[in-house]
Design goal:
By secondary structure, this protein is α/β, with parallel strands linked by helices. It folds into 3 domains: 223 residues, Rossmann fold, CATH 3.40.50; 121 residues, Glycogen Phosphorylase B (Rossmann fold, 3-Layer(aba) Sandwich), CATH 3.40.50; 135 residues, Glycogen Phosphorylase B (Rossmann fold, 3-Layer(aba) Sandwich). Helix content is 34%, strand content 13%. Strands 3-2-1-4-5-6 form a 6-stranded parallel sheet, with helices on both faces. Strands 13-12-11-14-15-16 form a 6-stranded parallel sheet, sandwiched between helices. The chain has a 4-stranded parallel sheet with strand order 7-8-9-10, with helices on one face.
């Protein structure tokens, strides 16, 4: 539902039992989950989205909850002020502001990062929260207990990223990490008696909406309801496990992601069966031998310290298991196509069950029109798409051909920097990828597991241009299956990109 649909306006200073919250960048990911969790508490939640249509599509999956779409571009003063005016006209105040909107920026070496790269990321991650906060402060001051939450990251910590024993010190993402450092300082430099806070505990203390009987009609989210960062670090799972372990209503089965130790710990505490969910490849017989080079980190002396911390975490939770036993291989549901699993015939079927991804639940994204020409989709996914030269090469390669070319360039690439587009080439920030692939004759992809799965599902030949993490292995699997070709990571040449696969 759009905020423009209208609701009864609250008077300025209205202290009704309703809690009004705004979450920016909320049409997907952590933002959308935050909207859902807050709305499930009975709050009125404004789903902030730069693109109103995408916001409406996201809100359509929250039927029955008091969620309203609020168009807001955090990089625009005018948009932020317009959004604040709409909230004032409809509700009269705001109780909770969650500054969630953010972008990662390019993952390139610091020496290759220019001021323009930083400026683009800072505009959203640093100036955006400042801009939105200033626009909504007058409405927050009308709340009995206003709260502003800044969504930061451990990668913004100078201490953490300077510690050679920490994994974070090995990651290179200057634009994003420095922007989060700046955001942390903006937060801490704000008056402590004001509404601005980055403390998760304080941020949860929202307006106390109690009735005459003293009962809390809109319970506040406890620690189990907040995002505690990367739970692969066992000590960070404690906050999630502690409050939940005394719950009376225990489940019959617990499903958990492969990286989330908290789920496994809860299953042990509750003594209930658990099933692991894997969105990537799983181990096979002989995995350790075949992957010896990739598993060399196990010989790192720092692993001893990690295992000690792991054991201490288990002991603190009352789990009498060593880390190896605790981290063993439980029954696992594998969410990738079996065709993309390396050494699939050597995977233990008594442990792993391949069900593949869910690719039939996106009607809200809409369809894509049929093309009179063969259609090729070029997309580098959602994380590694700041590749202007690559998109230029694709325009040069495919433009002269009698094809319809759809470029999905993502949020970081400047459309004006690509080149003048011929009539048969169209450029979009985002496309409903599955719908486009249903019409496509070829797919140029970075070979992320999602894109590979979708290409296989629609039977589209693929040109894999891998860039990072698991993409190289995925691209090799596509080529081995005979459904695509793998172009090695180097400066793309138009002649080669245009060669039929």
């Amino acid at each position: 539902m759009s905020l423009a649909a209208g609701v009864a306006r609250g008077d300025a200073g209205d202290m009704s039992d309703t809690t009004y919250a705004l979450v920016t960048g909320a049409n997907k990911g952590l933002g959308l989950t935050t909207v859902r969790r807050l709305a499930e508490l009975g709050w009125t939640v404004l789903l902030g989205a730069r693109d109103a249509s995408r916001g409406a599509a996201a809100a359509s999956g929250l039927a029955g909850l008091d969620v309203h779409v609020l168009p807001i571009d955090v990089t625009s003063d005018e948009s932020a002020c317009t959004a604040a005016k709409r909230v004032e006209d409809s509700y009269g105040r705001l109780d909770v502001l969650v500054n969630n909107a953010g972008i990662t920026g390019p993952y390139v070496a610091a020496a290759d990062t220019g001021a323009g790269d930083l400026r683009k990321t800072y505009e959203t991650n640093v100036f955006g929260p400042v801009r939105v906060t200033r626009a909504f402060l007058p409405l927050l001051t009308r709340s009995a207990a206003p709260r502003i939450v800044m969504v930061s990251s451990g990668m913004g910590s100078i201490a953490v990223t300077s510690d050679p024993s920490r994994l974070e010190s090995q990651l290179v993402a200057l634009t994003c990490t420095s922007s989060k450092t700046a955001l942390n300082m903006i937060t801490t430099q704000t008056r402590p008696d004001g509404p601005l806070t980055s403390d998760p505990q304080r941020a949860q203390r929202v307006p106390d909406r109690r009735g005459g009987d003293g009962r809390d009609r809109h319970p506040r989210p406890g620690p189990a309801g907040r995002a505690d960062g990367d739970l692969r670090r066992p000590e960070r799972s404690r906050a999630l496990v502690g409050p939940v372990r005394v719950a009376a209503d225990r489940p019959d089965l617990l499903l958990y992601d492969i990286t989330r130790y908290a789920g496994r710990a809860l299953a042990h505490r509750w003594n209930v069966p658990l099933v692991q969910l894997s969105p990537s490849m799983v181990a096979w017989e002989g995995f350790e031998e075949d992957m010896g080079e990739a598993l060399a980190f196990r010989r790192d002396p720092r692993l001893v310290e990690y295992r000690e911390r792991f054991a201490a975490w288990l002991d603190g939770l009352g789990i009498d298991l060593d880390p190896d036993t605790f981290s063993g291989r439980p029954r696992c549901v594998v969410l990738i196509p079996r065709a993309l699993q390396p050494h699939a015939d050597d995977v233990d079927e008594k442990v792993y069950t391949f069900v593949g991804p869910s690719l039939d639940r996106r009607p809200h994204q809409g369809d894509w029109p049929e093309s009179e020409k063969p259609l090729v989709l070029v997309s580098l996914g959602s994380a590694y798409n700041d590749r202007t030269e690559f998109f230029r090469a694709c325009v040069a390669a495919f433009g002269p051909l009698p094809w319809q070319v759809v470029l999905a360039i993502g949020p970081h690439t400047d459309p004006a920097a690509i080149a003048e587009l011929p009539p048969n080439v169209e450029l979009h920030r985002w496309v409903p990828q599955l719908a486009v692939l249903r019409r496509a004759s070829a797919f140029v992809t970075h070979a992320g597991m999602g894109g590979c799965s979708e290409g296989l599902h629609e039977g589209v030949p693929m040109i894999a241009v891998s860039q990072a993490v698991d993409q190289f292995g995925n691209a090799a699997m596509l080529q081995e299956l005979g459904v695509g070709v793998h172009l090695r990571p180097r400066r793309p040449r138009p002649r080669r990109c245009g060669r039929p696969c």
